[in-house]
Amino acid sequence: MSDHLFEYLCRMGDNTLVLGHRVSEWCGHAPVLEEDIALANTALDLIGQTTLWLDLAGEVEGAGRNADKLAFHRDVWDFRNLLLVEQPNGDFGQTMMRQFLFDAWHLGQLKALMDSSNAQVAAIAEKSSKEVTYHLERARDTVIGLGDGTEESHARMQAALNKLWPYVGEMFVSDDVDAALVAGGIAPDPASLRPAYDALVSDVFLAATLEKPQDDFAHKGGKSGKRHSEHLGHILTQMQWLQRAYPDATW
Amino acid sequence: MVVEKPSLDTVWAWLSAVADPEIPVISLTDLGIIRDVQWHDDTLAVTVTPTYSGCPATTIINLDIETALRGHGIEKLTLKRQLSPAWTTDWLSDTGRAKLEAYGIAPPQPAGGPKQCPRCKSTEVEKISQFGSTPCKAQWRCTDCLEPFDYFKCI
Fold first, then answer.
1. Residue A27 in contact with residue A43, Cβ under 8 Å?
2. Could you tell me if B69 and B46 are in contact, meaning their C-beta atoms sit under 8 angstroms apart?
3. Is residue A251 in a domain?
4. Domain range holding A115?
5. Taking CB atoms and an 8 Å cutoff, what residues of chain B touch A122?
6. Which of A156, B19, B61, B76 is most buried, by the most CB atoms less than 10 A from its CB?
7. What is the pLDDT of residues A49-95, one digit of tens each?
8. Adjacent-strand bridge partners of A4
9. What is the arrangement of strands in the sheet containing B125-129, beginning at the earlier edge strand?
10. 25-64 in A: which are within 8 Å (CB) of B?
11. Nearest to A172 by CA among A187, A193, A142, A188
């Protein structure tokens, strides 16, 4: 079980780590000051949650690795994040669409994890869910505002949805790791989160005058680590360069 | 030599004099993040809960607690992080809320928005953004005096 739990905790922590890093790329570049601050705050929450998940992963693994070691000393094939969160920022609309698609899953996932049989997992989920509630509220309002906005903003949001929808399916796919955690009462069956997710996003797309793509084809390979997109390596070269140039540097 | 251990009330009083590093007008006990203080034999154990998981002030807060208690002669000290129950703005003390308002930060309200502008006290206020200058705050604006202000958001 501890191998499976380690794997699962890496998935949680790698999602927040990679998305947190992506979102932080906006710092100083967002279209307006308030959005810049909101993006930086969201990134900060996600990086904070990463510390909690990956520290626990290191503790479960018992090999002396902590969150920093896991974040900065692993290579692409060891990362277990969803393909969705490593996708490039694109324009502001695409960033917010990616955020909405992730947050809608993330909050449902965390709420389910609050009932985990593992007290440490439940505590991190309880803490994170408060922060993610604000992320989802903002992402939803922004998707509606831009989708049901000008002709230009609508077209960009529809393009973002069409581009990112094929990355949604991976969130609900199960494997042996999920099965073991479901059996242990630690985590929910990923597929069980899908009906509420679909209902939520459909309501928001209706309000945003956006059309959900018909095709449910899903790219996979991020959460299993078997096939990341080419983007993850580029993220890591930037995120890890200091620890690679000066191993174990501290300040 | 026998050294008398300070009482827990004394320790709480010391901690109530440690200011929040981001909002120095309120103390750590006003903020409600000190969850427990106990003696385990001759070791003082202080339990602290973070406000937001990524809040950069968290490490400074731990350092400030340690510095303050060591300054009062505490030699054996452990700091424990507690995540659950998660910190909530309901734990802000009434004194803390009053100090926030006097400082220009609207205190959290169950309704989810500020009761009034902390400067001119007008109730005509509007939200600018759910995110503000620190993770714990949102940006609002008074439509009477037109001043933007921070609102300590509910969590």
1. yes
2. yes
3. no
4. 2-245
5. 84
6. B61
7. 999 999 999 999 999 999 999 999 999 999 999 999 999 999 999 99
8. none
9. B105-106, B148-152, B137-142, B125-129
10. 34-35, 37-38, 41-42, 44-49, 51-52
11. A193
